[in-house]
Write a sequence for this structure.
């Protein structure tokens, strides 16, 4: 290898870990010999794009978890067609090296090395054809879809009731981000990763206590209940923020998902988010990471995966991470940790999993979204490091979650499944409730509150999946019965005085002495129960697929007064049908359309309304969408057009009534995968027209919806630098258009653009595969307002943030 490569390796090593040794100049993917031997005959899925042979071999070794060493001069400028399908490690190496004149030889101490192929005199070697297995829509619900070329996005996702479905067979716009993409982006939370999609905007304050989003211009919860599904079920994932250390996939389904997953606890209709936990698959793994974030956030992650049994049918995977230190916001420090244990059994007919997750986060001086009084211009955004929160303000959040799942193949065409679990969240915090900008000079009124919040969630579902044919029509039938419950308990005491500070020059305020609530009484209880049936009919060799689905959901909700008596209640049901069509006129082209409905819990009239406390029936929303997906040469391109109409409640004089409606129309464009050898893209754009088309206030009809930009665009690219094998350079550009802050469209924040850069270097240190990563967000440290939430809350842009990490496999 070149001296340049050794120098780069040493620089990254010293930067991230302070290792004072030069990396081993041999390309390798390290794993223990026992693990390699155990997995050598075990086939697994590979999806590696064409490119230079050295780059393809590096990706294969990384995906296969093996040591692979070679002399770079043997490879020269050789190219490889890549590898797609299910292979054992030896078969995969033979396929990649076919026609190159090279062969892979297993080393006595473990791993493989390359050498010139040895000819046997008088004999001609017979070609060895490896076994290839293609992933299809009929795969088991627990099977993980493989990744597209570039390994940033998967080519399938779990569509709730429909199970894992290939992207080209899906009548929805779906994106599934892989664990590799999460690691390379150094995304610490689900929100960090979803921010790379133009349909999603992160509407939380940097340094805040929760992750909140908009999808297709509609809010996804407000942090009161988890809007993220865990392995296809609501009620399990952590309530406010989900750590990524234990996540294998983050799946984004755009549009209403009430039929697929059931009504979201807070009723989001713009889309659904599902996380797939890491499990013990493939070779055994031990991986340690250390990371640093400006200004002094230090942390690490441990990932251990093992399989046991005569047929490796038992699996265990543990992920643990912890980070602590000062953040790059004034006065703020944060310590957060998460641990996840995933157990699984993979038998001939029975498959079962058990997931347990514990997560905690403590923040000193947590930041909050800023509100603004009517009638004034929104002041310019301050330096992103400015934090009006005080050092004595704090937040503490603890989550515990559990999910048990099993599926049993009654026959080759009939599977029974059952799952159950839940979670509990406990919150204690002392900080300003809704800090409000009161003038254009940036003065802010704050009122502190000592607040406690507890929520308990439980969920269970069971059902059947069947596959059968009726003449020339194939059927994939799913039936489900589900039940979700939550109970919210809440109490708070407010300060007796309002204080003043400033957006640009925060004032150090004296600590407030606010008593803790004596008790935490229940304030609401909700039950969402339902039954669903869906059938995907396939015809003409699966070139035409029609999905018909129907779910009936019963929504029961009780609100309680301070003395525990029921103050209001409703118990109503609703049907949410879905129709999806997929047509494949050519081999690599899919045309799709869907009509889907969403369901949202009805509003409760606010305290200032003459009908305060009145609870409204569930709201329905309807989506119409059609689009095109094209897969070619390691790339996938998508175009979709959609319209979503959602009813809402609002004040009409002194009365709160359900007489509002918002209609969002848009066009979405996406480009994912490996556009050329060693060049990968994650690019998307969304053009959105979000309007209030019906309102109790005639003056608001026709206005643009709050927090809904006309244009959102993300362009992310990676390049494997040919001059230094193992080095990858990355960058991204994020654009968000102008957003209105109020319903009358008199206050707004301007458009903004953010530039991020990154690099990673994969090498070996002490014969261990090691990857060094560097990412800089908001390179030019621009001071912007980044987002407006559905209630007019302003979020500042993240200041320039440096992230460093080093990951070593054992």
């Amino acid at each position: 290898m070149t001296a340049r490569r050794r120098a780069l390796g040493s620089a990254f090593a010293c930067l991230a870990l302070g290792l004072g040794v030069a990396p081993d100049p041999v390309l390798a993917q390290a794993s223990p010999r026992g693990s390699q031997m155990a997995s050598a005959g075990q086939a697994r899925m590979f999806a590696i794009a064409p490119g230079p042979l050295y780059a393809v071999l590096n990706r294969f070794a990384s995906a296969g978890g093996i040591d692979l060493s070679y002399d770079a001069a043997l490879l020269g400028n050789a190219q490889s067609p890549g590898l797609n399908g299910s292979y054992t490690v030896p078969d995969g190496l033979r396929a990649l090296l076919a026609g190159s004149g090279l062969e892979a030889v297993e080393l006595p101490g473990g791993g493989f090395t390359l050498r010139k192929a040895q000819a046997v005199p008088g004999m001609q070697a017979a070609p060895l054809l490896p076994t290839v297995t293609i992933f299809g829509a009929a795969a088991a619900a627990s099977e993980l879809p493989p990744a597209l070329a570039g390994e940033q996005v998967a080519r399938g996702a779990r569509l709730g009731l429909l199970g894992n479905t290939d992207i080209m067979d899906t009548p929805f716009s779906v994106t599934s981000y892989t664990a590799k993409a999460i690691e390379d982006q150094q995304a610490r939370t689900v929100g960090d990763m979803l921010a790379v999609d133009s349909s999603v905007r992160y509407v939380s304050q940097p340094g805040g206590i929760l992750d909140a989003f908009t999808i297709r211009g509609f809010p996804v919860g407000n942090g009161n209940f988890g809007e993220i599904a865990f392995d296809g079920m609501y009620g399990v994932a952590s309530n406010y923020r989900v750590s990524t250390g234990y996540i294998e996939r983050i799946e984004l389904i755009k549009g209403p998902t009430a039929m697929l997953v059931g009504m979201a606890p807070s009723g989001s209709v713009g889309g659904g988010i599902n996380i797939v936990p890491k499990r013990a698959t493939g070779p055994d793994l031990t991986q340690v990471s250390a990371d640093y974030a400006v200004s002094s956030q230090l942390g690490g992650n441990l990932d251990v995966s093992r399989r046991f049994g005569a047929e490796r049918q038992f699996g265990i995977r543990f992920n643990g991470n912890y980070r602590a230190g000062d953040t790059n916001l004034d006065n703020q420090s944060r310590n957060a940790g998460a641990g996840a244990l995933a157990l699984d059994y993979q038998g001939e007919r029975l498959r079962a999993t058990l997931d347990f997750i514990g997560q905690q986060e403590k923040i000193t001086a947590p930041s909050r979204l800023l509100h603004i009084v009517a009638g004034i211009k929104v002041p310019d955004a301050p330096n992103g490091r400015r934090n009006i929160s005080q050092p004595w303000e704090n937040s503490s959040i603890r989550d515990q979650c559990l999910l048990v799942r099993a599926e049993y193949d009654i026959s080759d065409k009939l599977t029974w499944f059952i799952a159950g679990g839940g979670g509990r969240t406990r919150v204690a915090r002392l900080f300003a409730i809704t800090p409000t900008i009161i003038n254009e000079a940036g003065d802010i009124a704050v009122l502190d509150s000592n607040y406690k919040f507890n929520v308990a969630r439980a969920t269970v579902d069971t059902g059947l999946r069947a596959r059968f044919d009726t003449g020339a029509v194939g059927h994939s039938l799913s039936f489900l019965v589900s039940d979700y419950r939550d109970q919210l308990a809440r109490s708070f005491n407010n300060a007796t005085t309002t204080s003043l500070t400033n957006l640009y020059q925060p004032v150090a305020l004296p600590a407030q002495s606010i008593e803790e609530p004596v008790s935490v009484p229940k304030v609401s209880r909700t039950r969402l129960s339902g039954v669903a049936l869906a059938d995907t009919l396939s015809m003409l060799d699966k070139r035409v697929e029609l999905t018909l689905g129907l779910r009936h959901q019963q929504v029961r909700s009780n609100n309680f007064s301070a003395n525990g008596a029921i103050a209001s209640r409703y118990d109503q049901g609703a049907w949410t049908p879905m129709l999806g069509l997929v047509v494949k006129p050519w081999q690599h082209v899919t045309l799709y359309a869907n009509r889907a409905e969403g369901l949202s819990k009805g509003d409760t009239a606010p305290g200032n309304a003459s009908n305060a406390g009145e609870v409204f029936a569930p709201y329905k929303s309807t989506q119409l969408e059609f689009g095109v997906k094209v897969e070619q040469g390691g790339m996938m391109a998508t175009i979709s057009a959609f319209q979503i109409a959602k009813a809402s409640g609002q004040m009409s004089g002194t009365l709160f009534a359900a007489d509002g409606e918002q209609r969002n129309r848009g066009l979405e464009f996406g480009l994912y995968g490996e556009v050329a050898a060693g060049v990968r893209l994650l690019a998307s754009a969304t053009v959105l027209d979000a309007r209030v088309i019906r309102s109790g206030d005639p003056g608001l009809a026709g206005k643009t919806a709050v927090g809904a930009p006309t244009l959102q665009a993300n362009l992310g690219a990676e390049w494997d630098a040919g001059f230094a094998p193992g080095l990858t350079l990355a960058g991204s550009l994020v654009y968000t258009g102008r957003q209105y802050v109020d319903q009358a469209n008199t206050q707004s924040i301007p458009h903004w653009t953010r530039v991020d850069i990154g690099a990673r270097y994969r090498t070996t240190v002490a014969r261990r595969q090691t990857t060094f990563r560097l990412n800089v967000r908001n390179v030019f440290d621009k001071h912007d307002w980044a987002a407006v939430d559905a209630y007019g809350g302003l979020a500042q842009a993240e200041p320039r943030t440096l992230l460093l990490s080093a990951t070593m496999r054992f």
User: Anything to note?
Assistant: The chain has three domains: 3-116, 156-276, 277-809. The helical segments are 3-16, 33-39, 53-64, 72-75, 89-97, 179-185, 190-194, 258-261.
